[in-house]
Amino acid sequence: MSFSDEIKSALSEIFGEFGQAVKWRDKEFNCIVVEGQQAVELESGGFVPDETFTIKFLEKELDGKYPAIGEIIEVNGRNFRIQWVSSRVNRGQVQVSLSPKDK
Fold first, then answer.
1. What whole-number distance in Å separates Cα of residue 3 and Cα of residue 25?
2. Rg of the chain in Å (alpha carbons)
3. Apex CA 66: angle with CA 64 and CA 69, to 5°?
4. For residue 56, what is the enclosing H or E element?
5. Which among 68, 18, 24 is positioned nearest to 47, based on CA atoms?
6. Whole-structure pTM over 0.85, yes or no?
7. Rounded distance, CA 64 to CA 60, Å?
8. Nearest CA among 101, 83, 98, 77 for reference residue 35
9. Cα–Cα distance, 23 to 71 (Å, whole number)
10. Helix, strand or coil, per DSSP, at residue 4
11. What is the DSSP letter of 35?
12. For residue 59, which of 31, 45, 84, 87 sits 20 to 30 Å off, Cα-Cα?
């Protein structure tokens, strides 16, 4: 197993342990919320970002179909618009920057 394969395997474990469910293109994904966690929503048991923030998808779960700027992603029942998508592929994860849909 190469070093890159070992990293990708470790990412799968991290996403499984610390991921948060998000909905994109009518499918649920387990993502890591990276930045901008401004408020805690105790009712849903998770963080509800109020500002721009970043999430990471596990690349192998995307099946080669990457998010695009302007698309909507649902996090904890709220809709956010994609502002930026990482351009690095085959790294194990895809980073996406989101902002509230109404902003």
1. 32
2. 14
3. 165
4. strand 53-58
5. 18
6. no
7. 8
8. 98
9. 11
10. helix
11. S
12. 45
